[in-house]
Specification:
This protein has about 325 residues and is of the alpha/beta class. Helices cover about 45% and strands about 20% of the residues. The strands form 2 sheets. It has a 6-stranded parallel sheet with strand order 2-1-3-4-5-11, sandwiched between helices. It has a 6-stranded mixed sheet with strand order 7-6-8-9-10-12, sandwiched between helices. Helix 2 packs across helix 3. The N and C termini lie far apart (about 65 Å).
Protein backbone atom coordinates (compact mmCIF):
# COMPACT_ATOMS: atom_id res chain seq x y z
CA UNK A 1 0.00 0.00 0.00
CA UNK A 2 1.37 3.46 -0.88
CA UNK A 3 2.26 5.69 2.06
CA UNK A 4 2.09 9.42 2.65
CA UNK A 5 5.84 9.51 2.02
CA UNK A 6 5.29 7.98 -1.41
CA UNK A 7 2.76 10.71 -2.23
CA UNK A 8 5.15 13.39 -0.99
CA UNK A 9 7.95 12.02 -3.17
CA UNK A 10 5.71 11.83 -6.24
CA UNK A 11 4.43 15.40 -5.73
CA UNK A 12 7.83 16.79 -4.75
CA UNK A 13 6.64 18.18 -1.41
CA UNK A 14 6.97 17.39 2.29
CA UNK A 15 4.72 14.91 4.08
CA UNK A 16 3.36 17.82 6.13
CA UNK A 17 2.23 19.54 2.94
CA UNK A 18 0.57 16.32 1.76
CA UNK A 19 -1.30 16.08 5.06
CA UNK A 20 -2.47 19.70 4.92
CA UNK A 21 -3.49 19.42 1.26
CA UNK A 22 -5.49 16.23 1.72
CA UNK A 23 -7.16 17.65 4.83
CA UNK A 24 -8.37 20.67 2.86
CA UNK A 25 -6.32 23.29 4.67
CA UNK A 26 -6.68 26.69 3.00
CA UNK A 27 -3.03 27.51 3.79
CA UNK A 28 -1.86 25.23 0.97
CA UNK A 29 -1.41 26.84 -2.42
CA UNK A 30 -4.25 25.57 -4.71
CA UNK A 31 -1.84 24.53 -7.46
CA UNK A 32 0.28 22.62 -4.94
CA UNK A 33 -2.82 21.00 -3.44
CA UNK A 34 -3.93 19.88 -6.91
CA UNK A 35 -0.51 18.32 -7.50
CA UNK A 36 -0.75 16.43 -4.22
CA UNK A 37 -4.25 15.14 -5.02
CA UNK A 38 -3.10 14.02 -8.45
CA UNK A 39 -0.15 12.16 -6.96
CA UNK A 40 -2.42 10.49 -4.39
CA UNK A 41 -4.82 9.44 -7.14
CA UNK A 42 -2.06 8.06 -9.36
CA UNK A 43 -0.65 6.01 -6.49
CA UNK A 44 -4.03 4.91 -5.18
CA UNK A 45 -3.21 6.38 -1.77
CA UNK A 46 -5.96 6.24 0.87
CA UNK A 47 -5.45 8.16 4.14
CA UNK A 48 -5.91 6.22 7.35
CA UNK A 49 -9.32 7.68 8.20
CA UNK A 50 -9.65 6.63 11.86
CA UNK A 51 -6.09 7.65 12.70
CA UNK A 52 -6.47 10.98 10.91
CA UNK A 53 -9.72 11.69 12.70
CA UNK A 54 -8.15 10.93 16.08
CA UNK A 55 -5.37 13.42 15.37
CA UNK A 56 -7.77 16.13 14.20
CA UNK A 57 -10.58 15.25 16.61
CA UNK A 58 -13.01 15.60 13.73
CA UNK A 59 -14.21 13.59 10.75
CA UNK A 60 -13.45 14.58 7.16
CA UNK A 61 -17.17 15.11 6.72
CA UNK A 62 -19.31 18.17 6.02
CA UNK A 63 -22.97 18.21 7.02
CA UNK A 64 -25.29 20.01 4.61
CA UNK A 65 -28.65 20.85 6.20
CA UNK A 66 -31.14 22.05 3.61
CA UNK A 67 -34.79 23.05 3.79
CA UNK A 68 -36.33 20.78 1.17
CA UNK A 69 -34.48 17.91 -0.52
CA UNK A 70 -37.25 17.62 -3.15
CA UNK A 71 -36.67 21.16 -4.39
CA UNK A 72 -34.29 21.20 -7.42
CA UNK A 73 -32.88 24.50 -6.15
CA UNK A 74 -31.44 22.78 -3.08
CA UNK A 75 -30.40 19.74 -5.11
CA UNK A 76 -28.22 21.98 -7.27
CA UNK A 77 -26.75 23.62 -4.16
CA UNK A 78 -25.89 20.17 -2.79
CA UNK A 79 -24.10 19.28 -6.03
CA UNK A 80 -22.00 22.44 -5.80
CA UNK A 81 -21.04 21.71 -2.20
CA UNK A 82 -20.19 18.09 -2.98
CA UNK A 83 -18.01 18.95 -5.99
CA UNK A 84 -15.80 21.32 -3.99
CA UNK A 85 -15.67 19.12 -0.89
CA UNK A 86 -14.72 16.07 -2.95
CA UNK A 87 -11.75 17.91 -4.46
CA UNK A 88 -10.10 18.16 -1.05
CA UNK A 89 -11.10 14.76 0.32
CA UNK A 90 -14.21 15.64 2.29
CA UNK A 91 -17.46 13.69 2.18
CA UNK A 92 -20.86 15.41 2.39
CA UNK A 93 -23.79 14.17 4.47
CA UNK A 94 -27.12 15.57 3.29
CA UNK A 95 -29.78 16.38 5.90
CA UNK A 96 -33.33 17.51 5.09
CA UNK A 97 -34.83 19.80 7.74
CA UNK A 98 -38.15 20.04 5.89
CA UNK A 99 -38.47 23.66 7.13
CA UNK A 100 -38.69 22.29 10.68
CA UNK A 101 -36.63 23.95 13.42
CA UNK A 102 -36.95 20.77 15.50
CA UNK A 103 -35.49 18.54 12.77
CA UNK A 104 -32.84 21.14 12.03
CA UNK A 105 -31.76 21.24 15.68
CA UNK A 106 -31.64 17.44 15.77
CA UNK A 107 -29.32 17.37 12.76
CA UNK A 108 -27.08 19.97 14.40
CA UNK A 109 -26.87 17.72 17.47
CA UNK A 110 -25.93 14.75 15.29
CA UNK A 111 -23.30 16.82 13.45
CA UNK A 112 -21.70 17.70 16.78
CA UNK A 113 -21.89 14.12 18.07
CA UNK A 114 -20.25 12.80 14.90
CA UNK A 115 -17.56 15.50 15.08
CA UNK A 116 -18.07 16.70 11.53
CA UNK A 117 -15.54 19.21 10.30
CA UNK A 118 -18.18 21.80 9.44
CA UNK A 119 -21.83 22.53 8.69
CA UNK A 120 -23.52 24.34 5.82
CA UNK A 121 -27.16 25.09 6.52
CA UNK A 122 -30.15 26.84 5.05
CA UNK A 123 -31.87 28.20 8.18
CA UNK A 124 -35.47 27.07 8.58
CA UNK A 125 -36.57 30.39 10.04
CA UNK A 126 -36.40 32.66 13.09
CA UNK A 127 -36.14 29.67 15.46
CA UNK A 128 -32.83 28.47 13.97
CA UNK A 129 -30.00 28.41 16.50
CA UNK A 130 -26.33 27.65 15.92
CA UNK A 131 -25.32 28.29 19.53
CA UNK A 132 -24.27 24.65 19.96
CA UNK A 133 -22.00 24.85 16.92
CA UNK A 134 -20.45 28.07 18.22
CA UNK A 135 -19.85 26.59 21.68
CA UNK A 136 -18.30 23.46 20.17
CA UNK A 137 -16.11 25.53 17.80
CA UNK A 138 -17.56 23.80 14.73
CA UNK A 139 -17.24 25.80 11.54
CA UNK A 140 -20.49 26.72 9.79
CA UNK A 141 -21.78 28.70 6.82
CA UNK A 142 -25.36 29.84 6.17
CA UNK A 143 -26.87 29.78 2.69
CA UNK A 144 -30.00 31.26 1.09
CA UNK A 145 -31.12 32.90 4.35
CA UNK A 146 -29.17 34.67 7.12
CA UNK A 147 -29.01 33.24 10.60
CA UNK A 148 -31.14 35.10 13.16
CA UNK A 149 -29.00 36.97 15.69
CA UNK A 150 -25.75 35.39 14.50
CA UNK A 151 -22.94 36.80 12.38
CA UNK A 152 -21.64 34.09 10.07
CA UNK A 153 -20.20 33.38 6.67
CA UNK A 154 -23.21 33.76 4.42
CA UNK A 155 -24.09 33.18 0.77
CA UNK A 156 -27.25 34.92 -0.43
CA UNK A 157 -29.05 35.90 -3.61
CA UNK A 158 -30.50 39.40 -3.97
CA UNK A 159 -34.04 38.12 -4.41
CA UNK A 160 -35.67 41.42 -3.50
CA UNK A 161 -34.14 42.99 -6.59
CA UNK A 162 -34.96 39.89 -8.65
CA UNK A 163 -38.61 39.99 -7.51
CA UNK A 164 -38.86 43.65 -8.43
CA UNK A 165 -37.43 42.97 -11.89
CA UNK A 166 -39.86 40.09 -12.43
CA UNK A 167 -42.79 42.28 -11.37
CA UNK A 168 -41.62 45.07 -13.69
CA UNK A 169 -41.55 42.53 -16.50
CA UNK A 170 -45.20 41.66 -15.85
CA UNK A 171 -46.12 45.35 -15.79
CA UNK A 172 -44.34 45.82 -19.12
CA UNK A 173 -46.42 43.00 -20.59
CA UNK A 174 -49.56 44.97 -19.80
CA UNK A 175 -50.77 43.12 -16.71
CA UNK A 176 -52.63 45.44 -14.35
CA UNK A 177 -53.64 43.35 -11.31
CA UNK A 178 -50.47 41.51 -10.41
CA UNK A 179 -50.66 39.22 -7.39
CA UNK A 180 -47.90 37.73 -5.26
CA UNK A 181 -47.83 34.30 -3.67
CA UNK A 182 -44.95 34.07 -1.22
CA UNK A 183 -43.70 31.95 1.66
CA UNK A 184 -44.14 32.15 5.45
CA UNK A 185 -43.76 35.44 7.32
CA UNK A 186 -40.40 35.74 9.05
CA UNK A 187 -38.56 33.65 6.45
CA UNK A 188 -36.07 36.02 4.84
CA UNK A 189 -36.49 34.82 1.27
CA UNK A 190 -40.29 35.03 1.48
CA UNK A 191 -40.20 38.50 2.99
CA UNK A 192 -37.62 39.76 0.48
CA UNK A 193 -39.59 38.53 -2.53
CA UNK A 194 -42.74 40.17 -1.23
CA UNK A 195 -40.80 43.39 -0.58
CA UNK A 196 -39.43 43.36 -4.15
CA UNK A 197 -42.94 42.91 -5.52
CA UNK A 198 -44.18 45.81 -3.37
CA UNK A 199 -41.32 48.00 -4.57
CA UNK A 200 -43.10 47.94 -7.94
CA UNK A 201 -46.77 47.30 -7.18
CA UNK A 202 -48.42 49.52 -4.57
CA UNK A 203 -51.43 47.35 -3.91
CA UNK A 204 -53.79 46.15 -1.22
CA UNK A 205 -53.40 42.91 0.70
CA UNK A 206 -56.14 41.39 -1.45
CA UNK A 207 -53.59 40.45 -4.11
CA UNK A 208 -51.08 38.86 -1.73
CA UNK A 209 -51.13 35.41 -0.13
CA UNK A 210 -48.62 33.55 2.04
CA UNK A 211 -48.27 29.81 2.49
CA UNK A 212 -45.61 27.28 3.35
CA UNK A 213 -43.05 26.69 0.63
CA UNK A 214 -44.99 23.65 -0.59
CA UNK A 215 -47.36 22.81 -3.45
CA UNK A 216 -50.36 22.03 -1.21
CA UNK A 217 -50.32 25.37 0.57
CA UNK A 218 -49.70 27.25 -2.65
CA UNK A 219 -52.65 25.48 -4.26
CA UNK A 220 -54.99 26.68 -1.52
CA UNK A 221 -53.58 30.20 -1.66
CA UNK A 222 -53.87 30.36 -5.46
CA UNK A 223 -57.50 29.20 -5.40
CA UNK A 224 -58.22 31.89 -2.79
CA UNK A 225 -56.56 34.58 -4.91
CA UNK A 226 -58.09 33.59 -8.22
CA UNK A 227 -61.62 33.08 -6.87
CA UNK A 228 -62.01 36.71 -5.77
CA UNK A 229 -64.49 39.00 -7.53
CA UNK A 230 -61.52 40.93 -8.99
CA UNK A 231 -58.83 38.26 -9.32
CA UNK A 232 -55.24 39.01 -10.33
CA UNK A 233 -54.39 38.82 -14.02
CA UNK A 234 -50.79 37.79 -13.25
CA UNK A 235 -48.92 36.07 -10.42
CA UNK A 236 -45.40 36.21 -9.03
CA UNK A 237 -44.74 32.90 -7.24
CA UNK A 238 -41.94 32.61 -4.68
CA UNK A 239 -40.50 29.17 -5.55
CA UNK A 240 -40.84 26.21 -7.91
CA UNK A 241 -42.52 23.91 -5.37
CA UNK A 242 -45.27 26.48 -4.91
CA UNK A 243 -45.77 26.94 -8.65
CA UNK A 244 -46.78 23.28 -8.92
CA UNK A 245 -49.74 24.03 -6.66
CA UNK A 246 -50.49 27.21 -8.62
CA UNK A 247 -50.56 25.29 -11.91
CA UNK A 248 -52.93 22.77 -10.37
CA UNK A 249 -55.24 25.59 -9.24
CA UNK A 250 -55.17 27.18 -12.70
CA UNK A 251 -56.15 23.89 -14.29
CA UNK A 252 -59.01 23.37 -11.86
CA UNK A 253 -60.30 26.89 -12.57
CA UNK A 254 -59.90 26.41 -16.33
CA UNK A 255 -57.32 29.19 -16.58
CA UNK A 256 -54.28 29.05 -18.83
CA UNK A 257 -50.91 30.70 -18.05
CA UNK A 258 -50.07 33.42 -20.54
CA UNK A 259 -53.62 33.54 -21.87
CA UNK A 260 -55.70 34.15 -18.76
CA UNK A 261 -53.06 34.66 -16.05
CA UNK A 262 -49.46 35.79 -16.50
CA UNK A 263 -47.06 33.67 -14.46
CA UNK A 264 -43.49 34.10 -13.21
CA UNK A 265 -41.91 31.80 -10.61
CA UNK A 266 -38.63 31.70 -8.77
CA UNK A 267 -36.10 28.99 -9.71
CA UNK A 268 -35.56 27.34 -13.06
CA UNK A 269 -36.63 23.75 -12.47
CA UNK A 270 -35.68 21.19 -15.17
CA UNK A 271 -39.35 20.86 -16.17
CA UNK A 272 -40.09 24.60 -16.44
CA UNK A 273 -39.24 24.79 -20.12
CA UNK A 274 -41.27 21.66 -20.90
CA UNK A 275 -44.60 23.09 -19.74
CA UNK A 276 -47.19 24.39 -22.22
CA UNK A 277 -46.64 27.28 -22.29
CA UNK A 278 -43.04 27.26 -20.99
CA UNK A 279 -42.64 28.93 -17.61
CA UNK A 280 -40.95 32.32 -17.16
CA UNK A 281 -38.60 32.04 -14.19
CA UNK A 282 -36.22 33.93 -11.96
CA UNK A 283 -33.15 31.71 -12.17
CA UNK A 284 -30.98 31.70 -9.06
CA UNK A 285 -27.34 30.53 -9.29
CA UNK A 286 -27.93 27.50 -7.07
CA UNK A 287 -24.81 25.55 -8.04
CA UNK A 288 -22.65 28.63 -7.47
CA UNK A 289 -24.24 29.10 -4.03
CA UNK A 290 -23.07 25.58 -3.18
CA UNK A 291 -19.53 25.99 -4.48
CA UNK A 292 -19.05 29.36 -2.79
CA UNK A 293 -20.44 28.06 0.50
CA UNK A 294 -18.11 25.05 0.38
CA UNK A 295 -15.07 27.26 -0.25
CA UNK A 296 -16.04 29.54 2.62
CA UNK A 297 -16.52 26.55 4.91
CA UNK A 298 -13.11 25.09 4.04
CA UNK A 299 -11.52 28.46 4.77
CA UNK A 300 -13.44 28.62 8.06
CA UNK A 301 -12.29 25.10 8.99
CA UNK A 302 -8.70 26.18 8.38
CA UNK A 303 -9.07 29.40 10.39
CA UNK A 304 -12.13 29.81 12.61
CA UNK A 305 -10.97 33.28 13.70
CA UNK A 306 -11.58 34.91 10.30
CA UNK A 307 -14.11 37.77 10.15
CA UNK A 308 -17.47 36.64 8.71
CA UNK A 309 -17.90 37.02 4.95
CA UNK A 310 -21.19 37.83 3.20
CA UNK A 311 -21.42 36.94 -0.49
CA UNK A 312 -24.44 38.20 -2.42
CA UNK A 313 -25.08 36.73 -5.85
CA UNK A 314 -27.46 37.92 -8.56
CA UNK A 315 -30.41 36.18 -10.23
CA UNK A 316 -31.64 36.55 -13.81
CA UNK A 317 -35.05 36.61 -15.41
CA UNK A 318 -35.59 34.03 -18.16
CA UNK A 319 -38.56 35.12 -20.22
CA UNK A 320 -40.81 32.43 -21.66
CA UNK A 321 -44.39 32.28 -22.85
CA UNK A 322 -46.16 32.04 -19.49
CA UNK A 323 -45.64 35.74 -18.82
CA UNK A 324 -46.48 36.99 -22.33
CA UNK A 325 -50.05 37.71 -23.35
Amino acid sequence: MPTISDVAARAGVSTATVSRALNGKATVDPELAARVRQAATELGYQPNGPARNLRRQEAAVVALIISDVENPFFTAIARGVEDIAHEVGYSVVLCNSDESAEKENRYIDIAIQERVAGVILSPSGPATSVTKLTERGTAYVAIDRPLPDHASDLVLVDTRLAAAEATEHLVAQGYERIGCLTGPAGVRTADDRLAGYRDVVKTTKKLVRRSEYKAAGAHRAAVSLLSQPDPPDALLVANNAMVVGVLQALRELDLRPGRDVGLVAFDDAPWAELLDPPLTVVAQPAYEIGTEAARLLLARIADNTRPPTVTTLGARLIERASSHR
